[in-house]
Amino acid sequence: MIKGENTCKSILVFTDSLASARHAVDPSVQSGQFLSLVVVHSLHPWLEASANWVVQIYQVSSKEEWWCHKEAHDFASDLKVSVGTHVLTSLNYLCAQGTKKCLDCWTTLFGMPSFCGNQFLELTDRLDKPMKPKYTGGGAWLSRLQGSPGFTARCCCAILGHAPIGSFNARFFPHQPIGCPCGAVLETRPHILGYCNHFTSHLKLPISMTDFIDFMKVNPRAFTFNTAPSGVG
Question: What are the domain boundaries of the chain?
Fold first, then answer.
């Protein structure tokens, strides 16, 4: 029961984690459901008393060290709560383990050309490590392509090996031209990225995602349809 419930009309909550605040009032099945039910059970009669009584939650950065917020944080964090004897069977742990196993399997499969495709362009991340698939933040590749839909489509075609260039024609439209306008016998992705004199800012292996995006921005005609082959578009 909330003390002073007959006079208190508004509860202000200051936190550096809105996710935790939402979690605290979420009675659905979760690892902390018992604590959430306690909070909801305490708030229910008070909120039911008047439609004008509200709980307002504000996000406050802990870096600001607002004195009252810091004092409450220090007081709460001083209490050490045992995780219990069955922490490895909690819902959160099981979900985390399931997610990790899926990602490990996904990463392993992604290293197989039969899974990601023989033409998939291997790019490196900001740490110069081969990029790996992920499911958060929009994914590893698309989240980095912050351009127009046309730019994103062009980058995807180049990465997947589906761009309308000579090597693509050789595979799917053998009666169409396969040479490069610069005079090269076969227009390939490595040729465009690293050698063709019709483009600038050429790249060297290994190619980083950042450098690839810069190349595509500097060369807006790279990996685009000049004239659609018969049967395309």
Answer: 10-80, 123-218
Write down the mean pLDDT value for the chain. 86
In this structure, the dihedral spanned by the alpha carbons of residues 197, 166, 141 and 124, taken in order and rounded to 10 degrees, is: -60
- Mean pLDDT of all residues in 172-192: 93
Q: In the structure encoding, which two tokens stand for residue 113, read together? A: 């050309």
Q: Which one-letter amino acid corresponds to residue 160?
A: L
Pairwise CA distance, residues 12 & 114, whole Å: 56
Nearest to 173 by CA among 163, 160, 159: 163
Closest CA to 166 of 156, 157, 177: 177
pTM: 0.63
The continuous run of DSSP H or E covering 37 comes out as: helix 33-49
Mean pLDDT for 15-31 is: 86
